[in-house]
Amino acid sequence: MNSKVFPENFLWGGAVAANQIEGAWDEDGKLPSVIDTVVGLHSRKPSIKWNQNKKIWELNLDPTKTYLTHEAIDFYHHFDEDLELMHELGLKAFRTSIAWSRIYPKGDEDKPNDKGLEFYDQLIDTIISKGMEPIITLSHYETPFNLVAKYGGWTNRKMIDFFIKYCQTVFERYKGKVHYWMTFNEINNLMKYPYVAGGILPIPPKNLDDPLSDISLKDCFQASHNMFVANARAIQILRKIDNKAKMGLMCSFSQLALYPNTPNPKNVFGAYLFTRKSFFFSDVMCRGHYPMYIIRYWKENNLAPEIEQGDLELIQNFTCDYIGFSYYKSSVFDVDKKMKVDTGGPIGIENPFLKVKAPQPWNWPIDPEGLRYVLNILTDRYELPLFIVENGLGMDEHPDKKGCIYDKERCDYLKMHIEQIAKAIQDGCNVIGYLWWGPIDIVSAGTGEMKKRYGFVYVDRNNDGSGTLRRIKKFSFSYYKQIIESNGTDL
Ligand code: BG6
Fold first, then answer.
1. How many domains does the chain have?
2. Largest CB tally within 10 Å, which of 96, 198, 322, 412?
């Protein structure tokens, strides 16, 4: 490959989220966040109960379930050695989230939790001292549970101030150290996962058995509006506190690699309309205004959120500096089939043109060209720097008799995707970095299991919670290292 394709300062790295890696879910003053109440995003029922006297939701963990995120891979106590492995891997950037409920455990208190801040002081300093750029997500499905239980979450405007107080604390603390921030992980998953992605809970609930069924589309639009205002205000204060730092949005853009099943105009336009469910979020956060298609949709369906004076100006004046996004798979749209969505993106009908077999049982189609397609679409629409902050391959893996894990499929996956990124750069896309999702095995967000492993480093922990937590380098470790060392040329 041409040695000049990837820019010198290209951010090769890895990405994780606090809740999927740290564990220590209730240590050092941390209180639960929404994700601590579920076993994976796909689960319909959070482990909570309604307290009629106090008019508040309470945690109600089910002793028959294993909440693997509660201990995860215990990065909280192993981060130094794990980051040393990431350094050895050659990463130039390491993305993680700050668990909001370590800093403000309840979310609505005035003073931050010193112990939580001290943990991230050490973590961020260690990332930097090991030669990596920290890339920080402010909320990766991690709204403090108390804010959701007491205020109903993001449908409530008060959330904006709670979030901004938290942003201000960490922006001031990590000024000059963190140059890349993102507000809400996969904000466009809000409609699909309103509880975890949008931190929405109905108060008081109508349906005690299935409270999430009370959440309406109107609630989702209200929550997204409040999050857009929060995003704009976060950018506003970041520019004051640290004007060299950049704020990105973060969307799941596997959603954009959506192909019509046939040339039937209903399939072509139907697929296009489906992508607008995601473009809606990036249009607002990059262009700074609500697009006409959504205003019309609100009007015709009586779904318009309450917008206060000054909100639209904020959204207009403070747009994102770059687009962070995840890409895992593509899908095929057919007007006669109902589309589903999971953490990886939409699930449509099978694409017979994709040749590489998807790992089972998750069956996420492998489509590297889809990544080039998405990068080009985003460039044409926004002309902003693009940061691939998640891409990866989850597989069920076990060490062989000699204790080795030969993950050739992961190497092939990397090679194919990096080739397509190189093509997109040559197409004119301004790609600033590539972060592999889960460079060390972590808990899956969707299913809440350990079995779906993404890492270049294996972690001995199993779905039932057993395991020694021992770390083992997989075969792909040296392959990604070689790619980074050669700046994407030695594939
Ligand atoms: C993205 C999330 O949806 O996909 C991550 O930002 C998640 O948190 C990743 O882990 C992969 O999904 P899963 O369900 O395989 O963990």
1. 1
2. 198
Q: Is 191 helix (H, G, I), strand (E, B) or coil?
A: coil
Give bridge partners of residue 246 from the DSSP assignment: 180
**H or E element that contains 132:** none
358 is a domain residue: yes
Q: Is 186 assigned a catalytic role?
A: yes
pLDDT band at 438 (very low <50, low <70, confident <90, very high): very high
Nearest ligand 1 atom to the CA of 438 is: 10
- Annotated catalytic residue within 142, 390, 397, 449: 390
Structural domain range at position 259: 11-485
4 domain-assigned: no
Structure confidence by residue, pLDDT tens digits, 246-297 = 999 999 999 999 999 999 999 999 999 999 999 999 999 999 999 999 999 9
User: Can you give the CATH number for the domain in which 184 is found?
Assistant: 3.20.20.80
| pLDDT, tens only, 15-35 | 999 999 999 999 999 999 999
The CA-atom distances, in angstroms, between 235 and each of 160, 163, 176, 278, 428 are 13, 12, 16, 21, 27
Nearest C-alpha neighbor of 270 from the set 372, 348, 350 = 348
The number of beta carbons lying within 10 Å of the beta carbon of residue 106 is 15
Does a structural domain hold residue 491?
no
- Phi (first) and psi of residue 238, to 5 degrees: -65, -40
Q: Whose CA is nearest to atom 8 of ligand 1?
A: 445
Bridge partners (DSSP) of residue 308 are none
